[in-house]
């Protein structure tokens, strides 16, 4: 009786191929693939799916229709960091992927991740790949995490890849957490600006109202005038800011605008150091995956493509995918492909050229990954300092706007005195 076997292989041109083959046993399946010119990397028997899988029908289908995002997910970065850290620990301890996800389904607190872990346990138990199961949940796992796990499956370093993803999400969560002070100051500025900037105008109009309505006490007249000014100027200001926040929220979560966001994050210095960290971390992860894959004897063209899909910035990933070593008997040297991307400095290209010439490409890729790691640490220190400068800038602008609003009515103080006293 023939059975179905899922395979991962490299064809004669060096391209990565996946599919299924029918054979009576694994040895025959491998012989059939070798006859087609395939170099078999992995061969797993595909077991028949269990009937009436509740998890598959209730969870997998809705998530598969959701648009995939390359960088972000609907769950918090800290939650993803803890998830991948536990996954790395289970795999490092020798647990099978099915057992690891079975235990994780009872450990993670997010209900969506619990359902995803149950489905991933079913997929891996049937012989499927982890990356295939993760791709069914694009709202939970960004596309680059699926690419990182796929590359690790090809290169045989799943625990290290999961640990790297855990470190990345933890680092990104810390970077965003540092922004709490500017965010708090900005919210206070938006709320208090219409209240303080209208204080002097409310005082003058309150005195006029008191002179026209003797039944009101001076404090009541001033408060009534203040409320009228807040309703006239403050409420429209708050509604406009709320509209801007809504537009910003949509732009930051739209899948169609993700390419624009990724490119803008690399060129707009809205916070010094943050753009440098994004670029350095993306290139560091690409170089590290590329080195691990080439160390596992994966063809350069296939290794390049797999590593590019593991980059956490979409703009950089697309730039890498546009330039990649070709397939064939004499593919393009790695240093030439690196130079054509325009993402690496000339001295970094020279470093890889030396590795190509001496036959130590993997070692030079590891050295380059260390250089980008040091650059990430420098960018983090610069980013932390820039946050304090940004917070100070918000304080200065808030005080200045309130002073302008408070002082403007005094430019008409003579006219006010004449109207209030009744000077002819």
Word description of this protein:
This protein is mainly alpha-helical and 424 residues long. The protein has 19 helices and three strands. Helices cover 69% and strands 5% of the residues. Strands 2-1-3 form a three-stranded antiparallel sheet. The longest helix has 47 residues, at 361-407. Mean pLDDT is 82; it is low at 48-66.
Work out the helix count.
19
Encode the helix/strand succession as letters. EEHEHHHHHHHHHHHHHHHHHH
- Largest beta-sheet characterization: 3 strands, antiparallel
User: What class, by secondary structure content?
Assistant: mainly alpha
Percent of residues in beta strands = 5-15%
Mean pLDDT: 82
Largest beta sheet: strand ordering: 2-1-3
Shape: elongated
In which range does the helix fraction lie?
A: 55-70%
What is the gyration radius calculated from CA atoms? 30 Å
> Span from first to last CA?
112 Å
Low-confidence stretches: 48-66
Number of strands: 3
Topology, element by element:
Layout: E1 3-10, E2 16-23, H1 26-35, E3 39-45, H2 54-64, H3 77-92, H4 97-104, H5 111-125, H6 130-134, H7 143-155, H8 158-177, H9 180-196, H10 199-212, H11 218-253, H12 258-267, H13 274-295, H14 300-308, H15 314-322, H16 334-341, H17 346-358, H18 361-407, H19 413-421
Antiparallel strand pairs: 1-2, 1-3
């Amino acid at each position: 009786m023939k059975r179905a076997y899922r395979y991962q292989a490299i064809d004669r041109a060096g391209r990565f191929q996946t599919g299924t083959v029918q054979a009576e046993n694994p040895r025959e399946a491998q012989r059939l693939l070798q006859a087609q010119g395939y170099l078999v990397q992995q061969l797993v028997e595909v077991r028949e799916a269990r009937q009436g899988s509740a998890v598959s029908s209730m969870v997998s289908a809705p998530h598969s229709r959701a648009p995939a995002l390359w960088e972000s997910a609907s769950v918090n970065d800290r939650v993803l960091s803890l998830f991948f850290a536990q996954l790395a620990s289970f795999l490092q301890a020798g647990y099978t992927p099915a057992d690891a996800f079975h235990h994780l389904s009872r450990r993670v607190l997010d209900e969506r991740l619990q359902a995803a872990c149950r489905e991933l346990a079913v997929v891996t138990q049937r012989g499927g790949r982890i990356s295939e199961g993760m791709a069914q949940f694009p709202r939970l796992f960004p596309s680059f995490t699926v690419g990182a796990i796929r590359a690790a499956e090809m290169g045989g370093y799943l625990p290290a890849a999961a640990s790297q993803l855990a470190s990345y999400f933890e680092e990104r969560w810390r970077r965003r957490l540092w922004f709490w002070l500017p965010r708090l100051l900005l919210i206070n500025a938006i709320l208090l600006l219409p209240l303080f900037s209208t204080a002097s105008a409310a005082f003058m109009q309150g005195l006029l109202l008191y002179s026209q309505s003797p039944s009101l006490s001076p404090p009541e007249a001033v408060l009534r005038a203040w409320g009228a000014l807040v309703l006239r100027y403050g409420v429209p200001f708050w509604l406009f800011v709320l509209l801007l926040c809504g537009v910003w929220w949509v732009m930051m979560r739209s899948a169609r605008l993700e390419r624009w966001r990724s490119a803008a994050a690399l060129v707009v210095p809205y916070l010094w150091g943050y753009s440098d960290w994004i670029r350095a971390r993306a290139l560091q992860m690409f170089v590290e995956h590329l080195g691990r894959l080439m160390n596992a004897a994966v063809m350069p063209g296939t290794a390049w493509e797999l590593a590019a899909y593991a980059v956490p910035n979409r703009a950089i990933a697309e730039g890498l995918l546009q330039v990649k070593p070709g397939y064939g008997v004499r593919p393009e040297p790695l240093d030439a492909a690196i130079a054509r991307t325009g993402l690496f400095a000339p001295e970094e290209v020279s470093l890889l050229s030396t590795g190509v010439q001496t036959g130590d490409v993997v070692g030079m890729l590891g050295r380059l990954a260390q250089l980008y790691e040091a650059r990430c640490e420098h960018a983090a220190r610069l980013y932390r300092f820039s946050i304090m400068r940004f917070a100070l800038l918000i304080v200065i602008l808030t005080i200045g706007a309130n002073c302008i609003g408070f002082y403007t009515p005094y430019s008409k103080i003579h006219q006010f005195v004449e109207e209030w006293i009744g000077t002819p």
